[in-house]
């Protein structure tokens, strides 16, 4: 993927992940397309008004993710899908570490891209699912500078306590987020097993953290 295309893709992924900025309890009775529209509008306003996020403040973004975003994403399912078949053999401790490192990877990879969010608006396409469906795709279009870009959310409706729609995959520019990481993770797992993947993610996160710190000092 070319650097320019990746930068655009990263910005959109960051925006999509951040679309869980409101409590899902409030959105539990909404249709999934109406909910995504409301959340998208809210997160655009939040990003535009938060100068720390615009500046790529990683600590600020991590705090936002922990308090607002992660409770609204089925991150266990997202991580399991990204890890693939090896997830079933992973111990509870390994699963916890995988989720922690994967979350940090996503946040640090896309934190800088949030600064690119400026004058975009989002429109939601007509929903194709039935009211009784519990697994749906919400299709949206991001409009700003340049051509409109298609963005899709895959959501599931969860039962019981904390019931509501939760995002577990994203399609940006025709690329599904989970499948992209699954191919990368498979190489590490095949070479060094689950512990090797955890170590590789931790090292990558350490490298990203050092790069962010160096950039902050130069700034």
Give structural notes.
The chain is an alpha+beta fold and 219 residues long. Helix content is 58%, strand content 16%. A five-stranded antiparallel sheet has the order 1-2-3-4-5. A hairpin with a 5-residue loop joins strand 3 and strand 4 (164-172). Helix 1 (3-17) packs across helix 8 (92-110). Mean pLDDT is 79; it is low at 20-28.
Element layout with pairings:
Blueprint: H1 3-17, H2 24-27, H3 32-49, H4 51-54, H5 58-69, H6 75-83, H7 86-89, H8 92-110, E1 121-124, E2 135-143, E3 149-158, E4 164-172, E5 175-176, H9 177-218
Antiparallel strand pairs: 1-2, 2-3, 3-4, 4-5
Strand tally is 5
Q: In total, how many domains does the architecture comprise?
A: 1
Q: What is the rounded Rg?
A: 17 Å
CATH architecture: Roll
Order of helices and strands: HHHHHHHHEEEEEH
Looking at the structure, what is the overall shape?
A: globular
Q: Report the sheet-strand fraction.
A: 15-25%
Low-confidence stretches: 20-28
Strand order of the largest sheet: 1-2-3-4-5
CATH superfamily: Tgt2/MlaC
């Amino acid at each position: 993927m070319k650097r320019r295309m990746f930068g655009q893709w990263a910005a959109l992924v960051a925006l999509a992940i951040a679309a869980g900025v409101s409590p899902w309890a409030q959105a539990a009775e909404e249709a999934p397309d109406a909910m995504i529209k409301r959340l998208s509008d809210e997160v655009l306003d939040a990003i535009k008004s938060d100068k720390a996020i615009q500046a790529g403040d990683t600590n600020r973004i991590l705090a936002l993710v922990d308090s607002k975003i992660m409770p609204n994403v089925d991150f266990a399912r997202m991580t399991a899908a990204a890890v693939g078949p090896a997830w079933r053999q992973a111990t509870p401790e390994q699963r916890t570490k995988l989720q922690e490192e994967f979350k940090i990877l996503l946040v640090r990879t896309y934190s800088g891209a949030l600064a690119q969010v400026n004058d975009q608006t989002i429109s939601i396409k007509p929903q194709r699912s039935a009211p009784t469906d519990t697994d749906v795709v919400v299709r949206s279009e991001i409009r700003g500078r340049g051509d409109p870009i298609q963005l899709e959310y895959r959501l599931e409706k969860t039962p019981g306590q904390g019931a509501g729609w939760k995002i577990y995959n994203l399609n940006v520019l025709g690329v599904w987020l989970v499948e992209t990481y699954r191919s990368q993770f498979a190489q590490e797992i095949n070479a060094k097993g689950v512990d090797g993947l955890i170590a590789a993610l931790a090292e990558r996160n350490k490298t990203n953290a050092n790069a962010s710190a160096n950039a902050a000092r130069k700034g």
